[in-house]
């Protein structure tokens, strides 16, 4: 019973493989190489886009910092005055 099922499955799969057009021995390797090229190209495009975004963000940050006035403090705004005001001086 098991061998009949295996033989039937084997013959069905071999018939199916024979009916596939262009089923040469190198077609799988060609498709795999084509897929690897597409994957490599996609990864390169993503890497270039990430580098471009990081470069643009850094350039915007540097331009913003270089145009800032040294007299204005964004983070420590009036910190010294609050400390002096809290002590009563």
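^ structure tokens above, recovered residues below v
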């Amino acid at each position: 019973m098991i061998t009949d099922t295996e033989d039937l499955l084997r013959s069905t799969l071999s018939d199916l493989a024979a009916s596939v057009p262009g089923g040469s021995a190198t077609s799988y390797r060609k498709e795999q190489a084509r897929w690897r090229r597409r994957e490599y190209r996609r990864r390169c495009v993503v890497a270039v886009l990430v580098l471009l975004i990081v470069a643009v963000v850094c350039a915007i940050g540097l331009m913003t910092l270089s145009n800032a006035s040294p007299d204005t403090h964004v983070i420590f705004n009036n910190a010294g005055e609050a400390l002096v005001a809290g002590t009563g001086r």
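The chain has a mean pLDDT of 81.
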